[in-house]
Amino acid sequence: MSKWKIIIPIMVLALIPVIYFSYFAEESKSESKKRVIALGDSLTYGYGDDKDTGYIGRLEEKVNEKNTKESYQFQNLGIPGQKSSGLQKQLMKPSVTEDLSEADVFIVNIGTNDLIKSNGGDFVPLHHEKIMEAKKEYVDNLNFILDTLEKTNEDAEILVIGLYNPYPDKNSDKIEAYVDEWNQTIVQEVKKHGKVKYVSSNPLFKGKDKQKYFHDSLHPNGKGYELMADQIMKEYNF
């Protein structure tokens, strides 16, 4: 019998474990995904973006371009028109609660509708008492939301996106004052929680030409959402 008839089968048998573990290691690596769940209103939903992705979809692209060792899967649960009270109810739905336990990161962007709707749907004129009363309710709702996420998934980190002034190129000092006050309150509440980080969005639009960065009176366009995605990338290390 030729010695090669003995050696070749032995070599093949020796290579099988190497090929097997190499294949399944790569398969396991490709299946290893971080999960990000985005919660909020029409801004999270991405209303006004010509790509229909908003800052969440754009952020997912950027994060996965940056990371080569693991991929990130984003789930967008934003609901247009939603207030913080609506997000509270959304978190109580069994189908949503089940998803929350699987997340590695939460992105929460809520409060814009609380502020605007408390003033009658716009910012003209401003009603101080109504805005301040709405802020008290919003703070309670925000803490409930953060508490719920922390209790449902104690390992996940939470990013809370601040509010912005939708009139950056006008004489809107009074509006700016309310936006700043609400954001300061959000920062204070975020500090009371563990794995929660505040991401500011208001500075992004200051001094910007509204026609270039907004789809309408409130919602950013693609360029505006791009700014938001870039800001989150700067503030959080995915």
Overview of the structural elements:
This protein is α/β, with parallel strands linked by helices and 238 residues long. It is built from ten helices and five strands. Strands 2-1-3-4-5 form a five-stranded parallel beta sheet, with helices on both faces. Helix 7 (128-152) runs parallel beside helix 8 (173-190). The N and C termini lie far apart (60 Å). Residues 16-30 have low confidence and may be disordered.
Key phrases:
single chain, 5 strands, 12% strand, 54% helix, 238 residues, 10 helices, 5-stranded parallel beta sheet, alpha/beta
Q: Strands of the biggest beta sheet: in what spatial order? A: 2-1-3-4-5
How would you spell out the order of helices and strands? HEHHEHHEHHEHEHH
From the alpha carbons, calculate the radius of gyration and give it in angstroms.
Answer: 23 Å
Helix content: 40-55%
Strand content: 5-15%
Low-confidence stretches: 16-30
Count, helices: 10
Mean pLDDT: 89
The secondary structure category is alpha/beta
The gross shape turns out to be: globular
* Biggest sheet layout: 5 strands, parallel
